[in-house]
Amino acid sequence: MARSPCDLRLLLLAAAAAFIYIQVRLFATQSHYADRLAEAERSENQCTSQLKSLIDQVSVQQEKIVALEEIKVRQDEEHAHLKILIKDLEKRSVQKLLDNNVVPVAAVVIMACNRPDYLERTVESILKYQTTVASKFPLFISQDGANGAVKRKALEYKQITYMQHVDLEPVRTERPGELTAYYKIAKHYKWALDNLFIKHNFARVIILEDDMEIAPDFFDYFEAAAKLLDNDKTYNFGKHGSSLGQFFEQYLEPIRLNDVNIDWNSEDLSYLGEDKFLTKFGKEVASATPLHGSDAVLKAHNMAEDVRIQYNDQEDFERIARQFGIFEEWKDGIPRTAYKGVVVFRYNSSQRRIFLVSPDSLRQLGV
């Protein structure tokens, strides 16, 4: 059957419309994928740029690490070299002090840490009297730690041998809550004494802390007492220190520094030997007037002669000490400064003495 021209035109029109629609859809799809492709290219370029930046940063850091490693190697070499120099200088300094064939009485070591102003005051006090006896009393400064100001101050004194103790190990206390400062001090003391007794072979060492001043007769006193110390088998201005100024203002600051030069080498000190001293001191304690009762302290105020008051335990001692205004500290089961349990002091600037004795003191004194 033949179709009419009208039907053919309609079919061509429909086919043209379909073709145009398909072309439009293809163009839209191509545009969409072109946009996505462009976005992907931008993301890739951005990632590439970031990766390149990271690579550059890593490269810079690697260069820095290499440079730091080289610096560390140089510093380690310099540190080792300085240690050798310090040991050599220390050896030469000590040898120079001993070259004049004078046998030293004792090495004098100032224990320092982080107080350059205190150290200077102590050193200047010592040098006033040490210069004339330098060969008998070689002078050392032992610093604990790496405080730069203290080290610079110590090295200003060419006549003093400088030693430095650096310990980076963590401190382990025996009991919780203990001050670590005392452990650090103890380690420093052992290190310094090992150096002086073992390394430098001194027979005696006098220890001063960096908050002390000495009297004019300091060196004569120790020289005269050296033999006594050799035969003895019985075993300041520093407000800011490891004890946190404990008792300083009340008990230590009022102490007067002796300014009289005594020729101790001409004095007879034989009575300070243990046997003689024990007998002499025992007689003095025994001859003091005993005071008893709760009003014993009040009675002591009104007496002109030596008196003896017994304390029963730590609490009793601290009570009596507070009434007299004396040091009431108790360490390791005995009062501070006690000898055979006896604490002796002069009261109210008089010559009379007050003996505080434990229940066992007279027996220990052989009385």
Q: What is the number of helical segments per DSSP (H or I, 4+ residues)?
A: 10
CATH architectural group of the largest domain:
Alpha-Beta Complex
Rg, Å, rounded? 42 Å
**Strand arrangement in the largest pleated sheet:** 3-2-1-4
Secondary structure: number of strands: 10
Uncertain parts: 235-244
How many structural domains? 3
Report the CATH topology name of the largest domain. Spore Coat Polysaccharide Biosynthesis Protein SpsA, Chain A
**What is the average of the pLDDT values?**
83
Helix fraction?
40-55%
Assign the CATH superfamily of the largest domain. Spore Coat Polysaccharide Biosynthesis Protein SpsA, Chain A
Cα shape:
elongated
In N-to-C order, the SSE pattern is: HEHEHEHEHHHEHEHEEEEH
Largest sheet: 4 strands, parallel
End-to-end Cα distance: 158 Å
Family: Belongs to the glycosyltransferase 13 family.
Keywords: Coiled coil, Glycosyltransferase, Golgi apparatus, Manganese, Membrane, Metal-binding, Signal-anchor, Transferase, Transmembrane, Transmembrane helix
Cofactor: Mn(2+)
Function: Initiates complex N-linked carbohydrate formation. Essential for the conversion of high-mannose to hybrid and complex N-glycans.
Offer a quick outline of the entry.
It is found in: Golgi apparatus membrane. The protein is an alpha/beta fold and 367 residues long. The chain contains ten helices and ten strands.
